[in-house]
């Protein structure tokens, strides 16, 4: 446990309980420098990117096609806490139809003894369009909370 992350360095996993009643399995990876690591799957397999600063962008083609862009809106780290906000957009086309999805994800994680207390807030919306037609899709928001343990 070296570097700026102190006790945060490593992989944390467990379940988050959401305000809609769902339980979500969650894993957080923290680099030795104290930054969160974003893991994603492309057509060529799993990749990861260390999120190091506001404005950073990760763009990739996911396994199912289309394009995903992840932008770091904010990032704050300390030896006991990490807070960050991401904007994630996904675009794909099929038969002349453009499907666009956007999500804002805010994460606040802090050490509490041997556990990592996590609060995750997600807001998402989607739009489907064809030339001359725009159909708003689903909008949702939710908060998930839980305590993760180091692997």
Structure description:
It is a single chain. By secondary structure, the protein is mainly beta. It is built from no helices and ten strands. It has a ten-stranded antiparallel sheet with strand order 4-3-2-1-10-9-8-7-6-5, with no helix packed on it. The radius of gyration is 17 Å and the shape is globular. The mean pLDDT is 92.
Short description:
The chain is an all-beta fold. The protein has strands at 10-18, 23-30, 36-42, 45-50, 57-60, 67-77, 81-94, 97-112, 115-130, 133-150. The chain is built from no helices and 10 strands.
From the structure above, extract its key features.
151 residues, mainly beta, ten-stranded antiparallel β-sheet, 0% helix, globular
Strand content: over 45%
Mean pLDDT: 92
Distance between the termini: 13 Å
**What letter string, H or E per element, gives the SSE order?**
EEEEEEEEEE
Low-confidence stretches: none
Provide the helix percentage: under 10%
Largest sheet: 10 strands, antiparallel
Structural class: mainly beta
The counted number of beta strands is 10
What is the 3D shape? globular
- The number of helical runs is 0
């Amino acid at each position: 446990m070296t570097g700026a992350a102190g006790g945060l360095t490593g992989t944390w996993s467990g379940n988050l309980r959401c305000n809609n009643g769902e339980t979500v399995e969650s894993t957080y990876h923290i680099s030795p420098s104290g930054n969160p690591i974003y893991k994603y799957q492309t057509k060529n397999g799993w990749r990861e990117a260390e999120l190091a600063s506001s404005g950073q962008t990760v763009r990739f083609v996911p396994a199912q096609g289309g394009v995903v862009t992840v932008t770091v809106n904010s990032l704050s780290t300390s030896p006991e806490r990490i807070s960050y906000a991401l904007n994630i957009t996904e675009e794909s086309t099929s038969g002349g139809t453009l499907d666009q999805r956007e999500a804002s994800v805010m994460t606040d994680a802090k050490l509490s003894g041997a556990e990592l207390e996590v609060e995750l807030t997600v807001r998402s919306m989607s739009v489907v369009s064809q030339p001359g037609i725009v159909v708003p899709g689903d909008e949702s928001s939710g908060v998930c909370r839980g305590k993760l343990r180091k692997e």
